[in-house]
Amino acid sequence: MVCNASWSQVNHSSLSYHQQLTSHTKAQLELNTTPFTINSMFSLLQGTHTPSSVHASPSGSPPSSTAMESQPQHVTQPTRPRRRIVVAMTGATGAILGIKVLIALRRLNIETHLVMSKWAEATIKYETDYHPSNVKALADHVHNINDMAAPISSGSFKADGMIVVPCSMKTLAAIHSGFCDDLISRTADVMLKERRKLVLVARETPLSDIHLRNMLEVSRAGAVIFPPVPAYYIRAASVEDLVDQSVGRMLDLFDLDTGDFSRWEGWEK
């Protein structure tokens, strides 16, 4: 009798609770298109009932593709490619400027494409302690000056700009006239026609009317003429300090900061 009475109380209590549950969740159950299962009932009783859009199916299969699409997805950002600059060296004096530019670009993780004339190689050996092979090793890619089929000879080859350092007056004249008889003048011509950055570190003094006229016309075409004039206000302790300052200012034109020189910040108090 005690046992039967206990079961009767349990059944009565369960029925009463079921009636309360039904009235409380009727609206929600009517909206739920997923079949209401024993598992979902216990989830509701425990306060862990999840929205119908992410219910598992009665068979225990994974949520539908529609439900998965509603969840935040991790998107992998594409890796930005390295910036790419063409460096050309001609036979004008000042070979150390080109070498220092290559060193700085390597440190800044810029992809470099080097073109060197035969007279640039001769000047490197005469003016510095470097060998041309050591200088070429500083670049990511080296192109023969006579290779007119090199990638950099085409406008479809993406590059952020070009610097001719040092730039001889012969090369300046070739760029001015559009006479592309080697890879240096051809690549410079590409930079102008594609409206990309072209910096010419013109190294000559004094300058004739022809030099000045060529510089003016090339500047009007879009190039930047950069004579490597020393900045005496830095009170350089060595020639290397002057070179570093000039190289830093050259690369400023490509929005690159070498951090190797002091910038003007007004008169010292």
TrEMBL record:
Any GO CC annotation of this UniProt entry: mitochondrion
Top-level taxon: Eukaryota
Pfam families linked to this entry: Flavoprotein
Transmembrane segments: 85-105
Region (Disordered): 49-82
Record's compositionally biased regions (Low complexity): 51-65
Entry-linked InterPro entries: Flavin_trans-like (IPR036551), Flavoprotein (IPR003382), UbiX-like (IPR004507)
Annotated catalysed reactions: dimethylallyl phosphate + FMNH2 = prenylated FMNH2 + phosphate
Top-rank EC class of the record's enzyme: transferase
Residues involved in FMN binding: G91, A92, T93, S117, S168, M169, K170, T171, R203
Stretches assigned to the Flavoprotein domain: 84-252
Keywords from the UniProt entry: Flavoprotein, FMN, Membrane, Mitochondrion, Prenyltransferase, Transferase, Transmembrane, Transmembrane helix
Localization in the cell: Mitochondrion
Molecular function via GO: carboxy-lyase activity; flavin prenyltransferase activity
EC number, UniProt record: 2.5.1.129
Compositionally biased region (Polar residues): 66-79
Residues given in the record as dimethylallyl phosphate binding sites: Y233, R249
HAMAP family, alphabetized: ubiX_pad
Protein task: Flavin prenyltransferase that catalyzes the synthesis of the prenylated FMN cofactor (prenyl-FMN) for the ferulic acid decarboxylase FDC1. The prenyltransferase is metal-independent and links a dimethylallyl moiety from dimethylallyl monophosphate (DMAP) to the flavin N5 and C6 atoms of FMN.
NCBIfam families to which the protein is assigned, alphabetical: PRK06029.1, ubiX_pad
Family: Belongs to the UbiX/PAD1 family.
Quaternary structure (record): Oligomer.
Name of this protein: Flavin prenyltransferase PAD1, mitochondrial
Source organism (scientific name): Penicillium salamii
Lineage, broadest ranks: Eukaryota, Fungi, Dikarya, Ascomycota, Pezizomycotina
Record gene name: PAD1
